[in-house]
Structures are given as C-alpha cells and as structure tokens.
Design goal:
The complex is a heterodimer of chains A (815) and B (463). Chain A has 31 helices and 23 strands. Chain B folds into 2 domains: 194 residues, Preprotein translocase SecY subunit (Orthogonal Bundle), CATH 1.10.3370; 214 residues, SecY subunit domain (Preprotein translocase SecY subunit, Orthogonal Bundle), CATH 1.10.3370.10. Classes of the chains: A alpha/beta (815), B mainly alpha (463). At the A-B interface, strand 9, helix 14, helix 16, helix 25 and helix 28 of A face helix 6, helix 7, helix 8, strand 2 and strand 3 of B.
C-alpha cells in the first residue's frame, strides 16, 4: 500500500518534470564495470595494489585534467574508462584500509556525486564512505577537493576516519576546524582533499580577501566541492550571509548607561513583536524617557545616537536570552549557533548589540565593529568549478536545488529497506504538560532498557528537561553547546542499552548511533526492545531538520521509532499565531492529555510550512539583493589582488589614470629610492584604501537595504531602485578610491618615514570576528506589501459588477 | 537615443525577449481579426454606434476593440484581471488563502492556479451573458445580430469566448515570463495603440480633403506631445519623506542619494479613479436606453444635461475623479499601517514621534498630494472631450445661451480635432510604456554590469 502510493508519487513527479532521478539508473552501467574491475583488484596483494594505483594515476591524470579545462560535461569515452578505473581503485582501497567494502548504493552515490548531482541517501547508508571515490577523482584532476561538512567535529572525524583509504590511494587529506592558526590552515587547504565546514571555508575566503601580504591567504583555489548534509548547508544556512567584521576606530558608546535605562523601563514602556524579533518604545516609553533624560524629543535628529543606544539595550534585554541565544563564558558572551546548537567561536552580534549584551550581563564592553566583508554561502559555493551534494533529505527540495544551484537530485535506494516507524505528533496544550508526559515516557522506556534520544530546539530546553529527568531519577547525558569536548563519546553511546541522551539539533547530523553502543553483545538486546527511540520536543524550522532527527533511528534496516511532541506554546507556533489559526471552539482546554484533533494537528504543520516558505523567500531576496554587490566585490578584489601580487615597481601602475598620476609616480619613485625600507608602505596604502572603501560601501549597502522596501509605497520595484543606486554609488566610490590613494601617496611620498600607512589609519584590522545577521531586513518587507495592493485592487471589482448588472437589466427587460 | 536601441539590440537575451514580446502580441492581433461564429457583423456594428458613451464603449477599451467586433478575444483579459482581484481580495478576508499566500513560492503558485480557474469560470459566466444579450438584441435597422439563436449558439459562444480569454491569459503569462514587461498590461496596451495607425491615416485623409487644416494638425501634434510629457512628469513626481532608523550604528557619514525616505507619489491612485468615474457616469446613459424611462420627459432632460458631450457631464466627471482619487488612496494607503510598520522596526521621521503622530503627518502630506494628483487626473481626462467638441455651454439651463455668446468659439465648439486617445487610454498607454521602459532599463543595467564581470570567479590568490 505504502509502496504503491510512493510509486504513484514518483510517477506524478515525473509527469510534472521534477528534477529527481529515482535510483540513479544512469550510473548502473558504470557500476557494473567498476565491480568487474574490483574483482581483479581484490586478488592483488598490497604492494601490487600500490603499483596499480601508481600506474592508474599516471594514465588517468591527463584525461581527467583535460576534461576539466574544456568543461565538457558530456562524459566522453576516455573519461568514462578513467572514471571506472579510479572508482574501482577507491572502492578497493576502502576495503583494504578501512575494512569497509562500499555497497552498490554507495558506489552509485559516488558516481552521481562525480556527475555533479545532489544525492539523497538514507541516514546511516554511509555517505562519508561514498564521497571517497569522487574526491579521489577530483584530486587526480589536480584541483583542490573540499568536502564540506556540517560541523567541525565531522570535518575532523571524517578526515581522520577516511584518511587511511586516501593515503593508500596516494592522496593527501587534511581538515580545517575553528580556531586553527593560519599556517596549519594553509597547509590543510594545500592538501589534495580537505575536510572543512562550509562556513569555515567561506570565512577563510573572506579573511583572504583582507590579507596584506601575498603569502597570507590560506585558500589555494576552488575545484570540486562535495557538500555533506547539503540540504542544511545549501538551504537552511544559505539565507544567512557570512559577515566578517573588524574593530571600528572611536565611537565608544555608553552601553552600561543604556543597559541601566533599559532595565529601568517598566513593561508598558516598550512593545515587543516576538514574531519578527523586534522591540520598540511605546508612547508611554517615549514620554517617560524624555522626561527622565531631559533630552527633548528623542526622535529629533540630534538624538539619533541616544535612541539607537536605547533600542540596542532594549533588544539585548528583552529579545536575547541567556543560554538560548548566547552563553556567558570566561567573562565574555559567546553566541550559540541556532543551527548547530554549538558555541560559535569569534562570532559577535552586529552593530552595537554585542556591547549592549555585554553590558546587560555586566561584563566589560565589547568593541563596536565595522563590517569588512560579506558573502552568502550560495555565492561562495558558486565559486567552485564543480559542486555536488549529499544528504538524507533532498527530494522534497529538489526544485530549490535546481533553481539555486543547478543541481539535479538523484535518490539512492537504501542498502536495506527501512523498518523505522514514524508516529504521528503528540500535541499538548502547553510546554509543562508536554515535558511531564515526555519524562513519564522516557522513564518507562529507560526502565525497560531501551535507548532514547531526545532532540530539543534550544539549550535551555535541554537543561530544563534534563533537570526534570534527574528529578525523576533517570540519568541522562546532555549534549549542548557547553559540552563540546564530550560530544563524540556521548553520541557514540546514545544507542547503548538504557542510554538516555538529550541533545540540541546538532547531534543528529552525521554521527553514527550504533545500537548497543560500543558493546556489540548488547545489540541484540536493543533490537529486541525495538531499537532506538527518538523523541523530538518541538518541531524545527523546517521539515528537513525534523527528518534528520528522525533519521537517527532505524539506520541500515534496524528497527526504530520516532515521535515529535508539540506544545501549543512552542516558540515556532506562537510566533506564527497558532491561536489565531485554530478556530475558537476547537481550541483545546489545558490539560495533561495529548490533544487529539486533526484541525489542531493540521495547523501545527502549517505553521512549519509557513516558516519554510518565508525562509525560502528570504533566501531568494537575499540572492537578488546580493548579486550586484558580489560582482562589485569581485571587481574590486581583482584590482586588490593585483596590488597584492605586484612588485614594488609595478605598483605605481595601480595608482589610477589621472593626469596627477605622472608627477605622483615620480614622487613615489624618488621616495622609494631614498627609503627602500619603506617599499611595502605603498602596497599597504593601496590595500588599506581598498579595504576602507569597501567597508564604506558595505555600510551604505546595509543602510540602503533597510529602507529600500519603502519604494514599494510609490509602486516602484525596490530591487530595481536598489540596483540602480548601488551601481551609481559604486561608480562614485571607485573614482573616490583613486583620489584617496593619490592623496595618501602624496602625503607619504613627501616624507615616507613620518607618514607610514598606520598613521593614516590604513593598517590591517587588529582583530576580526564574524557576524551572523539573524534579523534579516527583508522579512517585514514581504508581509507589508501584500495587504496594501490587495485591498486597493479589490475596489476595481466593482467594475464587473456594474457590467453584470447592466447585462442583467438589458436582458431581463426584453423578456 | 539610437545608442540606447543599439545597446538593447546588442544584448542577445534582451533582444530575444523583446522579439518574443512582439511575436506574442502579433499572435494576439491575428486573433483579434477572427470573429465569433454565428454573428451578423454589420448589425453588431450598428448596435455599437447607437450605444456610444455607454458602458459598452468602456468594456471595448479594455478588450482592445475586440468587443465591438465580437472576435474570439471579445472578453479580453478582463476576466483574468477580475479573477486576480477577487483572489487578492479573498486573501485579505479568507484565512485559508491568507495562510497560503504566506507559504512562499508554493503557496503563490497555488493562488495563481486558483486565479486561472477563476478566470475560466468568469469567462463562462460572462460569455453566457453575452450570448443571451446578443440573442435578445436587434439593432433595429439591420435586424437580428445572432443568425441562429438557440442553445447551440449559446454553447458555441461560451466555448469560443472562454477559450479566447484562456489563451490570452496564457499569452500574457508567457510574455511576463519570457518576454519583457507585464504581459497582461501589454495586451491591454497593444489593444489601445493598435488604433493609432488608423487614426493617423484618417487625419491625413482629413487634411487632404480639407476637413482639417495644417494649423489644426500642428496644434494637435503639439498638444499630444505636451499632454504625454505632462503625464510622464506627474507620474514620476514624488514627495520624499526622510526616514531614519535608530537600530544600526550611528555616527556614520550620510551618503548622498541614499534612499532612506518614503516616496509618496503625486498620483498614487493611478488610472483607477478615472475608471470608476466613467463607470459611474455611464450608468445614467445606460439606464436611459431602457424604453420605460425613455418616454419620461424630465428624465430625458436630465440625461440630455449629463450626456457625454454636455458641460455638466465634464463637471461631474471631474468631480467624480477627484472624489474617487481620495477614496481610492484612502483604501490602498493606510498611514496608520505604515506608521506602525515603521515603528516596529525602529524607523521614524526626524522630529516626529512614531505611531499616531507619524500617521497624522503622513496623512496630511498625502492629502495635499492627492489633491494635486486628482486635479491632474481630472484635467487629463476631460481634455480630449474639450478638444473634440469643446464645452457646449449652450446646453446649460439658464446661463447657457449667455455664456455661449461671450465665450470664444474654440471653447464652446472645441478645436474640432480628433484626439487619438481618450484620457483613460492615454494614462494606460503612458503608464504601461513607462513601466516597460523601466524594466528594459534595469535589465540593461544588469546586463551591462554582468558583461563587465563575465568570466570572473572567486579564486584563491595562488589559484
């Protein structure tokens, strides 16, 4: 029955032209050939295999390299043969070095990855292993291969785990994680195959765009990217731009003072819009503050700084919650990444907000930052020559992968059919009832010895539940941002007999939960109990994240059960006004019993779909708005790159093409002769001005983006106005860049010793950190526009009514 | 000017899109010459001539002359517009659609699909109405319009007209997607401007035959250009209210030309008040054709006073446009909503407290702007009337003959020139043309930019 429905779904999908290939039929032929060669390879001894690898590398390299240069995606015969040969070697290397012989499904997935597809494989089917062969092929082609993982832990683990197989194939492998110094980072990127998170690689590119010496960049180029957990990276995270910031000179505010004001404001003084995550002063708040501060109207242009400070402090006080959005560690606040649930190193809140939160927690003030560069993950990934991805949940978003990344989806059938049972949600009227029920259930299952994995939406929720569980006498392991180091061990043991594990949504991704844990003998006992039980305490922002959590259970044909429990006061539901969606009479009375009402269930799912739709919209908008800025940055980067690599003599060519140029060139030449030790100063002045002008441009872009939606009031297309303004602004800035460089160099050349670049404020930023811009400027824009036009146009509807009436009277009268 | 065209032509994609648009509009024009079967064309034309100035003429405007000739596109794109309006209205009042509209791309696709179904349903209803109407009418002198009345005729007409509208809808969507500009607007636009060559030819003939003299034609051309220039000028006019956001870092320098303002258009209402006004004023003359009322003397006197060419009509028309301008603006633009929205995100007008006071401030500015805009719309709308027949003041009761004596001829009888377009058509044509040009321009900017950028990718320094 279920099978039949699935086939019908596929058939309808094919009819609709969905970009999904079920089963990867196109690669079956290659698979057979690889298996054929594999049988021969298996008979070789290790030295014989090494010799085979050596010969293959020599023979295959030119074929693969040529294919890359022409960019010809038609798989010509030579490449096809080379590919089969490489795959057969990689498959056998895995068997020899890792003791794991890739299944047919994994080889098929590898072939699809090589062909630049989005591969869907069930959780536990061995995606990590599937990526080895295509990475080997990419490495032989001589480009850097990046396997982009979901988190640092996986990057390190996968590189180490797959390392022996790669080494047997003569391929260097390395990983990049947060907090690594530039030198080892550079070495890691120089390896044939590099495991890193997409964010880390993206931030490295951003940092590379700010380096001041030619040897400083850590990246070496972008060949092939294999994105693991691709749906999360390409969809969920892609809407958040990566932003790098540096300290801005001057402008130290008074965050402590503002924090005191915000803390002293009574609750009628402000209005919170929890959905859009914004807070503003109310009429009463304005009146109160104006009389308290004696500053005159707060909205006067002169009080802008004051008002901004108050807004920031209010935001910090009311909208950012300790242990949810950030934790306090070593006298500093550390932000929690909403997607991974982990502490994000070197990340700050944008603008004055960071200092405001520091002040709220009574910590020493943080510096205000200026945005130095930004990059969306999508643009970053488009920089790779070839892109492919793998995940357990791709098919539902196949159109998005095609539209945004040009990736077709290939669904690989699981090696063994799944026996997992997904139960329908249990809905409770409030979080308290939900947690009581969960604790009861976990207690019971724990007594039977069945392993339970609980997935929560926030760190605070994990702590709350863990507290209640230990109150009930159930020992549990908590996985959240504060226990990074123990993560691997705990996850590995989550399937052990009687284990209870609570985790934020990070633990799901990529980690293998073996039933019975390390102790193989317990496996049978766990199987008999029905396998791992996965309980979600709230639905996440997208069904894909939920599916990932579900995927923890029932790996490789094991039994397993999953269920989500929902409280009607979950943030996801209240943010989207569930109480307005469920009709009044159906609203359940508070109680401990789960709500059994299809309407309520339907509405809870709809809330999730709305969030998904909104996020998609935000992503599209972000893409459209950032396209031009990205192009401008590429153009600037080219020139900056020339400044970076040019010899001192060539540098003068980059001064711009004005008539002042000639005399300036001579002046600079003379200065260099008398002060050869200052040669690098010219380069630093050039680079410093490039960075500064870009910083200003980004600030302008940010400001513009915040208000551009107002253009729709005049029925103009905000995007078109934005593009025009940004292009004009950039043209002006480029002219200004030349002028500034010339002015600076004139000052410098007059006396190189007295006017080093540092003195002109052109030094490299002392420290950089990253921002995660979460309050996107587009969200309100989407909501505002619709209602206005709809109501307006509605009046035109009178017209056909008049028309119909006219026909009616005419016709009727004659009768 | 030529450079701009060359630029457009030199970008393959833009060229392809523009050619595609023309091609599709060509298809539309071909369809506009295929009549609905079973109709006596001459009788139909006579009927239309007898009913000029009633709402029929208005319907014909939107169908691009297809209605008068009862071609397969007789219903025009109007059912689609109506359906999308109804859907948008329902989105506000019906929670199911409201939620759907928030579900992003997928939800919007569904709404579009409903709009298409709605179009077909409306077309069937309207098509059936027209079939019954045609059967019931005879044009008096020329006899029955429908050759063989009955169910077969009705079904055939419904089928033909519905298919025609569905095809037009598809055509419009194709233009929007693969061509340039908004396909639906362009189809209306094409229907209007297609009369231009005919008008030019008839002017040339009039010139030859001496009905018009050269000065009149020159005057006409000057007027035409002046009116179009005025429309372009006013349509682009904005009042910019500065907005500040107290959420970001301050102390940054102010960037010249930065769009941190709320642009309010002088004519926020667009062409819609004119449509309303004409619809409302068409009602009396339509009523007047009902025989039961045709014989009542005082009704006829009133109708004579507010006949299409009468001065009282012009006055009423003008007043109605002004009224509908305010009415419509108050509906599409709610200062309180705008103020609330701004407040929520930390925005404010310098010196004015967010919330109620901001709303009052915006309202005040908007009222003044709308007054100017409504006068402009009114003038543009009665201008053609004046040019054709002047203000025939002698029709006015009491003072009429006196005014007729003292006012110069060109006011009382007009210039006697045929203005190519009515005021409404002119506004639509200029509006659509401006939108399309703007779209081409923004495409041009983008391509120009991409052209520069071609072949550059992110690369490592050593890569």
């Amino acid at each position: 029955m279920a099978h039949g429905r699935q086939r019908l779904k596929r058939w309808v999908g094919r009819l609709q032209g969905r970009p999904v290939d079920w089963g990867g039929q196109a690669f079956r032929g290659d698979l057979a050939a690889i298996r054929e060669q594999g049988r021969r390879l298996e008979t070789l001894d290790n030295p014989g295999f090494a010799e085979e690898v050596r010969r293959c590398r020599e023979a295959v390299r030119p074929v693969l390299a040529v294919e890359e240069i022409t960019g010809n995606s038609e798989r010509n015969r030579d490449r096809c043969i080379a590919l089969q040969r490489c795959f057969a070697l990689a498959v056998d290397a895995c068997r020899r070095a890792l003791g794991m012989r890739p299944y047919d499904s994994q080889v098929l997935a590898g072939l699809a990855l090589d062909a630049g597809k989005m591969v869907q494989m069930q959780t536990g089917e061995g995606k990590t292993l599937a990526a080895v062969a295509p990475a080997f092929v990419g490495a032989l082609a001589g480009q850097g291969v990046h396997v982009l993982t979901f988190n640092d832990y996986l990057a390190g683990r996968d590189a180490e785990w797959m390392g022996p197989a790669y080494r047997m194939l003569g391929v260097e492998v390395a990983s990049v994680v947060q907090g690594m110094d530039p030198a080892p980072r550079r070495a890691a990127y120089a390896a044939d195959v590099t495991y890193a998170t997409a964010k880390e690689a993206g931030f490295d590119l951003l940092r590379d765009s700010l380096v001041r010496s030619v040897s400083a960049p850590v990246h070496r180029g972008f060949g092939l990217a294999i994105v693991d957990e691709a749906d999360s990276i390409l969809i969920d995270e892609a809407r958040i731009p990566l932003v790098i910031a540096g300290r801005e000179q001057g402008g130290e505010g008074r965050p402590d003072w503002f924090a005191a004001i915000a803390a002293g404001l009574p609750s009628d003084g402000y209005l919170i819009d929890e959905g859009a995550r914004n807070v503003s002063l109310s009429e009463a708040g304005y009146a109160r503050l104006e009389s308290e501060l004696g500053c005159g109207p707060l909205v006067d242009a002169g009080n802008l700084e004051l008002l901004t400070g108050i807004h920031c402090a209010l935001h910090a006080h009311l909208l950012l919650h300790r242990d949810v959005d950030y934790i306090v560690r070593d006298g500093e606040i550390a932000l929690v990444d909403a997607h991974t649930g982990r502490v994000a190193e070197k990340r700050r809140l944008p603008d004055d907000l960071h200092a405001a939160v520091q002040a709220k927690e009574q910590l020493a003030g943080g510096q205000r930052g200026a945005v130095l560069g930004s990059l969306t993950l999508e643009h970053f990934l488009s920089g790779y020559r070839r892109l492919s991805g793998m995940t357990a949940t791709a098919e539902t978003s196949a159109e998005e992968f095609r539209d945004f990344y040009g990736l077709e989806t290939v669904v690989i059938e699981p090696h063994r059919p799944s026996r997992r049972i997904d139960h329908p949600d249990r809905i409770y009227t409030d979080g308290e009832a939900k947690r009581r029920a969960l604790v009861r259930e976990i207690e019971e299952e724990h007594r039977r010895g069945r392993p339970v994995l609980v997935g929560t939406a926030s760190v605070a929720e994990s702590e709350l539940l863990a507290g209640q569980l230990s109150g009930a006498g159930v020992p549990c392991n908590v996985l959240n941002a504060r226990r990074d180091a123990e993560e691997a061990r705990i996850v590995a043991e989550a399937g052990a007999l009687g284990a209870v594990t609570i985790s934020t949504n990070m633990a799901g991704r990529g980690t293998d939960i073996r039933l019975g844990g390390r102790d193989e003998s317990q496996r049978e006992a766990v199987l008999a109990l029905g396998g791992l039980l996965v309980l979600g305490t709230a639905r996440h922002e997208s069904r894909r994240i939920d599916d990932q959590l579900r995927g923890r259970a029932g790996r490789q044909g094991d039994p397993g059960e999953t269920r989500f429990s929902i409280g009607l006061d979950d943030p996801l539901l209240t943010r989207y006004g569930i109480e307005k969606m469920v009709p009044e009479p159906r609203w359940p009375a508070p109680g401990d019993e789960p709500v059994d009402d299809p309407v309520v269930a339907f509405e809870t799912h709809r809330a999730q779909r709305i969030v998904e739709g909104e996020n998609l919209e935000v992503r599209r908008t972000l893409e459209r708005y950032s396209a031009i800025v990205k192009q401008q940055h590429e153009r600037l980067s080219q020139r900056r790159g020339r400044c970076l690599t040019a010899s001192t003599g060539e540098l003068v060519d980059e001064l711009g093409s004005e008539e002042r140029n000639e005399s300036l060139r001579q002046a600079v030449g003379r200065a260099l002769e008398t002060h050869p030790e200052c040669a690098d100063d010219v380069r630093q002045i050039l680079l410093g001005h490039h960075d500064r002008i870009w910083r200003e441009h980004l600030a302008h872009v940010g400001e513009l983006r915040q208000t551009i939606h107002l253009q729709s009031v005049a029925r103009l297309d905000p995007l078109a106005v934005f593009q025009k303004e940004i292009i004009d602004a950039w043209d002006r800035r480029q002219a200004e860049l030349d002028q500034r460089i010339q002015a600076s160099l004139e000052v410098w050349a007059a006396d190189p010793e007295r006017h080093p670049p540092l003195q002109q404020g052109l030094g490299a930023p002392a420290a950089t950190w990253t921002y995660l811009i979460t309050d996107d400027p587009f969200r309100h824009q989407l909501l505002g526009e619709l209602a206005g036009t709809a109501k307006g146009l509605g009046i035109v509807a009178i017209f056909p009514v008049v028309f119909a009436w006219w026909i009616y009277t005419r016709f009727f009268w004659k009768r | 000017m030529m450079d701009a065209f060359k630029n457009i032509w030199s970008i393959p994609e833009l060229r392809r899109r523009i050619l595609y648009t023309f091609g599709m509009l060509g298809v539309y024009r071909i369809g506009s010459h295929i009549p609905t079967p079973g109709i006596d064309k001459d009788a139909l034309r006579t009927m239309f001539e007898q009913n000029a100035g009633s709402i029929l003429g208005f319907v014909d405007l939107f169908s691009g002359g297809n209605f008068a000739n009862l071609t397969i596109f007789a219903l025009g794109i109007m059912p689609y517009i109506t359906a999308s309006i109804i859907l948008q209205l329902l989105t506000v009042v019906w929670p199911y659609l409201e939620k759907l509209s928030k579900e992003g791309e997928a939800g919007r696709k569904k709404i579009t699909q409903y709009t298409r179904y709605g179009t077909v349903v409306l077309s069937v209803v309207q098509g059936f109405g027209i079939a019954l109407l045609l059967e019931s009418m005879s044009s008096g002198t020329a006899g029955q319009i429908v050759l063989n009345p009955g169910w077969s005729f009705r079904l055939m007409t419904v089928l033909t007209l519905t298919t025609g509208t569905a095809f037009l809808m598809w055509l419009g969507e194709q233009i929007s997607e693969r061509g340039i500009g908004n396909g639906i607007s362009l189809i209306i636009y094409a229907g209007i401007v297609v009369g231009l060559p005919g008008a030019i030819i008839s002017t040339v003939q009039d010139l030859k035959s001496g009905t018009l003299n050269a000065i009149q034609v020159l005057l006409l051309i000057i007027l035409m250009v002046a009116v179009i220039a005025a429309i372009v000028f006013v349509e682009r006019a904005q009042r910019r209210i500065p907005i500040q956001y107290a959420r970001r870092v301050v102390g940054r320098r102010v960037y010249g030309g930065s769009s941190t303002y709320m642009p309010l258009r002088v004519n926020s209402a667009g062409v819609i008040p004119v449509i309303f006004a004409s619809s409302v004023l068409a009602i009396p003359s339509t009523l007047g054709t009902i025989p039961a009322l045709a014989n009542v003397g005082w009704i006829q006197e009133i109708l004579r006073q507010i006949d299409y060419s009468a001065p009282l009509y012009a006055l009423l028309y003008f007043a109605a446009i002004v009224f509908f301008c305010f009415f419509y603006v108050s509906i599409i633009f709610n200062p309180m909503d705008q103020a609330d929205n701004m407040k929520k995100y930390g925005g404010f007008i310098p010196g004015i407290r967010p919330g109620k006071r901001t709303a009052e401030y915006i309202d005040q500015i908007l009222t003044r702007l709308t007054f100017a805009g409504s006068v402009y719309l009114g003038l543009i709308s009665i201008l053609p009337m004046f040019l054709i027949s002047g203000f025939r003041v002698q029709l006015l009761p009491g003072v009429g003959p006196y005014l007729d004596r003292i006012l110069p001829d060109f006011i009382t009888t007009g210039l006697g020139v045929k203005f190519f377009f009515g005021g409404t058509s002119l506004l639509i044509v200029v509006g659509v043309a401006m939108d399309t040009v703007q779209q081409i321009e923004s495409q041009l900017i983008m391509r120009h930019y991409e052209g520069f950028m071609k072949g550059t990718r992110i690369k490592g320094r050593r890569g």
